[in-house]
C-alpha cells in the first residue's frame, strides 16, 4: 500500500549541529537548515506511524513533528546516536497499554538488552518503564498501512538495515552497498543517503562518494543526510546537481 509521508526528524551526524564547544559564523547559524539533530526518520502511513531510529533527540523531534503515537520502531543498527532515546518510548507504551514493537537485527537486540535491562525486568505496579517487543528484522513487514522493506548495506564493520517504501529509500549510515541491495535502489523517486563529511570516512560515505553513488543509482531526487558541520546548506546546494539536495530537519517527502 502506498501513500503517506516520510519526515526527516534529524539530518545530523552523531554530535548534532551545532556541535558542543564549537564556534560558528553568525551567517551559518542564521540558516535553520544548518541546525541538525541526530539522524532519524518518521514514516507517517495511512493507518499509523513508524519511527526509524530512536536517538537522544527523539523526544524533541517527535514533539516538533506532532507525533501522537507509534505503531512500531525500526532500528537500523545499534550505535548510540540511533538508540539512546529509547527510554522516551515509555509514554507511548503507556498509551498503547503494552510494549512497543521494535524491529532490529540480532546485534542491535543485544545492545538494547545490555543498555536498557530495566525494560525487561519486573517492577511493582505503578512504576512506569518502557517495554519492548523485539522482533528480528524480516526482509519486509507491514506497519502503518505501509509495506516496509529492509535494505541491507554495510556501515563499516556493522550491518545496517535501511528502509524502502515503494519508490522511497533511506540509508543514513552506509560505507558500501552490496550489488543485491543496489538493485533494490535503482531508479527510485526519492533516496535519502549518508554523506557525513567532506573528507573520506571509514564507516560512512563522504560527500564526493555520496554524490557518485547517487548519480549511479539514478533516483529522481536524492537528499544527503547524517551531515556534520562541514556543510553550509545554501552554499553546498548551490554547487550540487539539481537532482541532489541536502536534507534538513523537518523535511517532508511524499511516499
Set out the fold topology.
Layout: E1 5-10, H1 26-30, E2 40-44, E3 49-52, H2 58-65, E4 72-74, H3 80-83, H4 90-96, E5 100-104, H5 106-115, E6 132-136, E7 140-143, E8 146-155, E9 158-165, E10 168-171, H6 179-185, E11 190-194, H7 207-217, E12 221-225, H8 233-237, E13 244-246, E14 252-254
Parallel strand pairs: 3-4, 4-5, 5-6, 10-11, 11-12, 12-13
Antiparallel strand pairs: 1-2, 1-14, 2-3, 7-8, 8-9, 9-10
How would you explain this protein's 3D organization?
By secondary structure, the protein is of the alpha/beta class. It has one domain (5-17, 26-254): Ribonuclease Z/Hydroxyacylglutathione hydrolase-like (Metallo-beta-lactamase, Chain A, 4-Layer Sandwich). Helices cover 22% and strands 27% of the residues. The protein has 8 helices and 14 strands. The strands form 2 sheets. A 7-stranded mixed beta sheet has the order 6-5-4-3-2-1-14. The protein has a 7-stranded mixed beta sheet with strand order 7-8-9-10-11-12-13. Helix 7 links the parallel strand 11 and strand 12. The radius of gyration is 18 Å and the shape is globular. The mean pLDDT is 97.
Amino acid at each position: 500500500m502506498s501513500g503517506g509521508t516520510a519526515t526527516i526528524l534529524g539530518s545530523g551526524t552523531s554530535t548534532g549541529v551545532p556541535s558542543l564547544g564549537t564556534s560558528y559564523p553568525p551567517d551559518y547559524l542564521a540558516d535553520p537548515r544548518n541546525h541538525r539533530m541526530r539522524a532519524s526518520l518518521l514514516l507517517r502511513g495511512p493507518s499509523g506511524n513508524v519511527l526509524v531510529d530512536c536517538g537522544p533527540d527523539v523526544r524533541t523531534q517527535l514533539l516538533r513533528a506532532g507525533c501522537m503515537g507509534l505503531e512500531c520502531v525500526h532500528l537500523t543498527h545499534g550505535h548510540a546516536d540511533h538508540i539512546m532515546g529509547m527510554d522516551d518510548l515509555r509514554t507511548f507504551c503507556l498509551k498503547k497499554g503494552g510494549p512497543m514493537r521494535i524491529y532490529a537485527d540480532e546485534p542491535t537486540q543485544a545492545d538494547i538488552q545490555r543498555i536498557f535491562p530495566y525494560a525487561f525486568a519486573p517492577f511493582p505496579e505503578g512504576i512506569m518503564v518502557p517495554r519492548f517487543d523485539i522482533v528480528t528484522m524480516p526482509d519486509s513487514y507491514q506497519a502503518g498501512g505501509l509495506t516496509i522493506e529492509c535494505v541491507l548495506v554495510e556501515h563499516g564493520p556493522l550491518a545496517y538495515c535501511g528502509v524502502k517504501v515503494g519508490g522511497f529509500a533511506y540509508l543514513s549510515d552506509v560505507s558500501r552497498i552490496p550489488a543485491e541491495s543496489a538493485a533494490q535502489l535503482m531508479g527510485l523517486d526519492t533516496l535519502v543517503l549518508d554523506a557525513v563529511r567532506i573528507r573520506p570516512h571509514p564507516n560512512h560515505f563522504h560527500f564526493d562518494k555520496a554524490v557518485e553513488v547517487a548519480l549511479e543509482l539514478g533516483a529522481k531526487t536524492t537528499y544527503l543526510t547524517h551531515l556534520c558541520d562541514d556543510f553550509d546548506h545554501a552554499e553546498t546546494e548551490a554547487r550540487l546537481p539539481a537532482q541532489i539536495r541536502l536534507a534538513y530537519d523537518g523535511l517532508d517527502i511524499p511516499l
